[in-house]
User: Fold these one by one.
Assistant:
Number 1:
Amino acid sequence: MDDSGIYLKFEKQIPGNVDVEGYENWIMLSSCNLSINRGIANETGQGKRDVGVPRFSAMMCTKESDKADAGMYKAHLLGTVLGKAEIHQCQTSGDSAHKPYKIFELSDTIIADYNDNMGMDSFSLVFTAIKIQVNEFDGTQIIDGEPVTFNLASGKVE
């Protein structure tokens, strides 16, 4: 299994195969995708726009089949709220290897769907709030970025 540098951990532990220092037993992901859309209507001839609220897709993830599968199947089938989910996208080479440059924290996470494609799994995570932190890599070190939190229930940035 190649190290993608994308790691997932649930508050209600589902152990994965990662053996990287600091990420032991996290779940290794192959990819992660989040889409945020905001409807904007331009009214012809009036020079104004109506800006809608942000709409978040579920966090779509893929991973190779591993020991986390059984726990993820069970959580999905039972509709278990897994608490906080953390996804870290890390440098995979150089002096800053395995330091996160992008961090997602999802609140009250539930596995909304789970697809097993005989060796490659895909699943989606739904959540009630999301915190995103993008760190800067200057070539030698990671510089912490400012986190942004959006609460889907209140529709507000916190």
Note: The chain has one domain: 6-157.
Number 2:
Amino acid sequence: MDYCTLIAIFCIFLLLILIRKANQSSKAIYYLKHIYYYGLTSICAFLWIPYFALRAKDTMNLLTAATILGPISKVISMKWELRGKEYLSKNKTVIMIANHQSSLAIWHVMGRTTVIAKKEIFYVWPFGLAAWLCGLIFINKQSATESKSIMYDAMERLKRENIKLWVFPEGTRRNTNEIHKFKKGAFHLAIQTKTPIMPIVYSSYQTFLNDNEKILKPGEVIIEALPEINTENYTTDKIDELIDKTRNVMIEVFNRNSLEIKNRMQCS
């Protein structure tokens, strides 16, 4: 471990002390927690690269990283409640469709899972290199043809190895207390490869996170996995129907769970 790494680790521990002592309602806590989150993630990514390289592109690397990074949630005062575990435990390939509100979403990835990410993330080293070694699938969002080819090639391997594929169809993450319109790429993939869709719903972050006002308070999130949506009988001319079905069931659960969290916060 070189001198620079030791300095970085010392700074992370110093940040941890400051977070513990800072006023939880202050803007300072917002910045301190974000610096801690991204700083520790980057340091861990750097330290794990040699280990991940021993089994490069293996999705079990992602599970290892998520398990070790799980305690970060406690430091930034986020609690996760996972529902629908029975749907996640199945050893089969599904396309997991999830809403996307914030990068503050470290929790245990379900079994053998990989994620579709924009290729720009790969160049954010050391995190990008570690992500590539964990088997993330990077696509060029500026080229639909190239992205489609990469995803279809990847899906053949995922099905052979019973690996789940995680997709954020909203594209850009937005914490606006709603589920935005979905892009069609993942749904084309599901229809063409006859792969089931599994909706994954995160409850609203707005009870504890406001990026505009720089607020990050202790909070809770319900993550709920829903029953699979069979795509066998869908064709590309019915893609809008499939998107609407998926999005509508997610909106219903999002509103219900977000209200539950809001009521909990008010009672605490």
Note: The longest helix spans residues 239-267.
